[in-house]
Amino acid sequence: MKTEAAGSTARKRSPLHQLVHVGGKNLLRSLWAFQGKHSKIPVSPFLFAEDFPQLATLEANWREIRRELDEVLKRPDDIPAFHDLSPDQSRISKGRQWTTFAFLMLGERIDYNRERCPHTAAVLDSLPGLQNAWFSILAPGTKIPPHRGPTRALVRCHLALEVPKDRERCWIRVDDQRYSWTEGKAVLFDGVDDRLVIDRHPLAGMGQFTFEALFRPDGGVFAQRWFHLNEENPTPGAPPSVTRMLFEIRVTGEAWALDAFTTGPGYKHTLLFQDKLFPVGKWYWVAQSYDGKTYRAFVDGQLQGEAEIAFKPQGPGRSSVGARMNKVDYFKGAIRETRFTPRALTPGALLRANV
Across residues 250-277, what is the average pLDDT? Predict the structure, then answer.
């Protein structure tokens, strides 16, 4: 494999390739618990430098590596997009926002690029067990969608070479921990258990509401709880509150059904109709609402079901996007946008997907 010029086109994956890819990732993910139990290194979101003495080599050479990067950046058109090198990354890499200058991919050397950066290549050659290595370049303002690695067997290392002056606005999140890079410093993580936690319950205090989200389910396991709003008891030592509302899906083959759920003091109800199925791999606006009497669920403005409940406003709390709050039932897909309204919108006022 060689990476000699930009403008390359990602190869279209065959149905067999996609089947093997998805099946393989699902199989590997089933091994996470076993890998974590028997791991010789911590399984925390970010790993510790003392467990990886090779970090010292990277950090000691970062200025020379940075000088070679600066030369590479003088010819930006020669740097392919991430999804050009790896078509499987097309969900998280779009356009030219994320480019990669590869030295090693799955153990295979990229000789053309190594010749352009000989010092970097020599440093990489000194690191045992290395499988992949590249300059990863993000355009200003780039936001990479949340995603997960397929296995804990690979540890990722980021050596920061060029970071904006306002470094706090340039960050990576692993699980519920956020990290801002510092030039010349390396950070390690295993890329598993990805979700976004927000210290706010957007519907807290609302007696009526509409909760909408634009998302794209991509198949995966049967039960996925992908947007969780949870009330939290502020009293120190108090037991966790069970008052919550969720968007969930139930996946069957290449189709999914919406599951809207809410529970609190005096009410608990699920709106799930598994005979109303939709194809995976497409974008949908989903909604749940309450008008003071009736709880309803919608997909692209179409009513899925409704029920009368004695809903009571929920208190302040947190939100978990991509998984349930207790880090189970992870979502496979993408979430682009949400909208919260302090009243029940009519079906005609609900958002619909046109992407």
Answer: 96
Helix (H) or strand (E) holding 177: strand 177-180
Of 348, 342, 349, 305, residue with least CA distance to 208: 342
pLDDT, tens digit, 9 for 90 and up, residues 188-199: 765 555 677 888
- The answer to whether the CB of 31 falls within 8 A of the CB of 108 is no
The whole-angstrom separation of Cα 344 and Cα 310 is 15
- 271 and 307 Cβ atoms separated by less than 8 Å: yes
Q: Which CATH number fits domain 196-349: 3.40.190.10, 3.40.50.2000, 2.60.120.200, 2.60.40.420?
A: 2.60.120.200
Collapsed DSSP state (helix, strand, coil) of residue 353 = coil
Structure-token match 């996470």, residue found: 32
- Report the topology of domain 15-189: Jelly Rolls (2.60.120)
At 180, is the secondary structure helix, strand, or coil?
A: strand
Each domain of the chain, given as residue ranges in start order, spans 15-189, 196-349
CB 147 within 8 A of CB 16: no
What CA–CA distance (Å, rounded) separates 232 from 244?
9
The mean per-residue pLDDT over the stretch 93-107 comes to 90
Q: Report, in angstroms and rounded to the nearest whole number, the Rg of the chain calculated over CA atoms.
A: 23
